[in-house]
Amino acid sequence: AVVSTQSGHYGRGLPPFPYRLWPEEEHGVFSGVAKIPYKDLLNDNSYVDPFLLQSMKTYGFFYVVDVPEYSAALEHDYMKQFYDLDEDVKDELAIRRHNPANKNAYRGYCPGLDDVENTLQYKNLYNIGPHETRGASVESEDVMEKLRYDCQEPNVWPETGNCTFDKGFKETFQAGFEIRRNIGRAFIRSIARAMNYPNLPALFAEDEFSAMGLRKYPIRRKINSNMYSDFDGTLLRELEHIDSTVTVLSTFNNGGLEILHKNQYRAVPVTGENSFIVNIGKLVDDLIDNKVPAVRHRVAEVDFDRYSITYFLGPQFDANIARSMSGKLTDAGQKYTIFGEWIKDYLGAIELFYY
Hints:
Blueprint: E1 35-37, H1 38-42, H2 48-59, E2 62-65, H3 72-83, H4 87-91, E3 108-110, E4 124-128, H5 143-150, H6 163-195, E5 211-217, E6 236-241, E7 246-250, E8 257-261, E9 264-267, E10 275-280, H7 282-287, E11 297-300, E12 306-313, H8 339-346, H9 350-354
Parallel strand pairs: 1-2
Antiparallel strand pairs: 2-10, 3-4, 4-5, 5-12, 6-11, 7-10, 7-12, 8-9, 8-11
Helix pairs in contact: 2-6, 3-6
C-alpha cells in the first residue's frame, strides 16, 4: 500500500520522495516533466530510470533538482560581475579570433557583435572546458593526434586584481562544471539501463571536448529581420535548432526558452535556484537508435539582459559513432567512424557547437 508523502515511504522497495518525479501540483503543458533528485540520479538509483525515460520520450527533456551545495544565484551574480568588467580586462581572455595573443581557439571569452546587418545571434560567451593545464606537445605528423592535443586547451580565468572576485569566480564555475558533468554522465548511465544498452556509458568515459558556456544575451536595440521565425513568425534571440550531444542547461529565472511540443513552440519553465534542464542532441539520439527525441528549441526575443549557462557532454575522442547501440549505421557514420573525426570537421563551425 502507498502511504502519505510526509512519511517518506511509498511502498515496499521504493525510495522516498518519488512524488517529485511527476509533480501533480503544477499546471501547464510541461507540468508532467520529470524532476529527478540529483543524489538519486548520481547514485544510480534505478527507480528514476523509467520516469526519466518517459519524460524524455514525451517532452524531450527533464529536470534535475535538489542539488546540494549549489546556488544558481551565486553563479548568476558572478556572471553579471564578469560581463560588467571593462572590455580591456575581458579582452585579455578573448579567444584568438578576437585576441591573436591568446593561443586558445575556443576556451575563453568570445564577445558578441551588435550588428544587425552582419550578425544573426548577438550574444557574449565565456567558454570553460575540463582542462586546467595542457599536456606535452605532440610531435607526430598525424592529423588526429594533433587534433586530440588541440582539444585539450587549458582554461583561462579572470585576473582582475580583485583576489576575492578572481578566486570566487574560478572556484564557483569549476564546481559548476563538475556538477553538470556529473549530471550528464549519470543521465547516460540511466538511459543505458532503461534501454538495456550496457555499452553506451563507455563512449562517454572521457570528455576531452565537453564545454560549459556562460552566455549573456544583451538587450538588442535594433531588430534583425532575419531573426523572425520561419515556423511561426516569432522574433527570436536564438535560432531554432537541435543540439548535437548531451545538454545540461541553466536558465536561472530568465524566460525566453521555448521547445517544440506537438508542433507548437511552448515556453519552458525556468530552472530557478536549484535545478537544471537536460536534453539530448542529434548525435546522441542516433547512438540510442532514435528512441527519444532530440528536441527542437529556440530563445524568443526578450527585453532584458538574459543570462544562461549551457553545458555540452560529448562522447570521448575515440568513441565509435558510426553505429548505434543496436548496430545500425548512424547519420554521422556515413562519413565518420570516431567522434574525433566528427569534431575535426565541426571545428570550422565552432560557434554553432558552443553558442
